[in-house]
Write a structure and sequence with these properties.
Length: about 110
């Protein structure tokens, strides 16, 4: 998420905001803002990014776009399409085996 950090740093520079000021504006704890802006937060929550982005009059999608990252839903859609393509090549026994493994993974989650 370093690209998100870089984008936020640019937005903050453009507005002359410190991490403390951004934390107050977004109502996100300063430690969280600092971790995101410094790139230490590897996978910040979308809801947190949305609150921060709104402080700039922007959306989390704007943040992802300027950071050249896929939104979580775009990434999920791509994975779903890849999975569907693989599943289409399997026979019924293979599909049943995969379904059983998926159920076991779901129970252990």
């Amino acid at each position: 998420m370093a690209l998100i950090a870089e984008t936020l740093q640019k937005w903050m520079r453009d507005r002359g905001l410190s991490t403390h000021a951004l934390a107050r504006l977004s109502n996100v704890p300063q430690t969280t803002v600092h971790r995101i802006v410094s790139g230490d937060a590897l996978e910040p929550r979308r809801t947190t990014l949305e609150r921060i982005a709104r402080s700039f009059g922007r959306s989390a999608n704007d943040l992802y776009a300027e950071s050249s990252l896929e939104t979580p839903s775009q990434s999920l859609n791509k994975r779903s399409q890849e999975l569907a393509a693989v599943l289409d090549t399997l026979n019924d026994d293979q599909l049943a085996a995969i379904l059983e493994v998926a159920r076991q993974l779901q129970k252990s989650a």
